[in-house]
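User: I'm writing a short report section on ligand binding and want a predicted complex to refer to. Could you take this sequence and hydroxy diiron-OXO moiety and write out the structure as tokens? A short remark afterwards would be nice.
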Amino acid sequence: MLKKVILDKMNRQINLEHFSSNLYLSMSSWCKAQGLDGAAKFLAQHSSEELGHMQKLFKYVNETGSQAIISGIEAPDTQFKNIKDVFEQTYKHELLITTTINELVELTLQEKDYATFNFLQWYVSEQHEEEALFKGIIDKMNIIGLEGRGLFMIDKEIGNLVAN
Ligand code: OFO
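Assistant: Sure. The structure tokens for the complex follow:
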């Protein structure tokens, strides 16, 4: 069983990963409506990954004999200024997730819960990769620019990041 203080934060993280999934799905829908098929495909796939992150936490919590709690999810934004705004928001959101994962890791050390500390290391590495991924997309946008064919090229580049 997890200590209550850790269980509460794990359940909060489950909710956050669930929110991330919905946020990226909402962004995918906005991109699709703008004809940005590459970004739409990438964000839909990322939404599924976030659902996987949520389920991995859910399974771990239940395996400890504690109860994972599925709670209400805040509605994500549905309107964005442009594709750069979308990816700046994904990057900002991933930074927030990194902060919450780090807080959890810190708490497990304080509470001497080494099994959960060990479990969370996967998320620590994942956050490093995700920050680099989203930052890389923003960097590309800054290099290519969004004017004229730039938007078309960027969308294609993002679509190429999707694992087949
Ligand atoms: Fe995109 O992050 Fe989950 O953990």
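A remark for your report: Residues 80 and 86 are 6 Å apart (CA to CA). The helical segments are 4-33, 37-63, 83-110, 114-144, 149-160.
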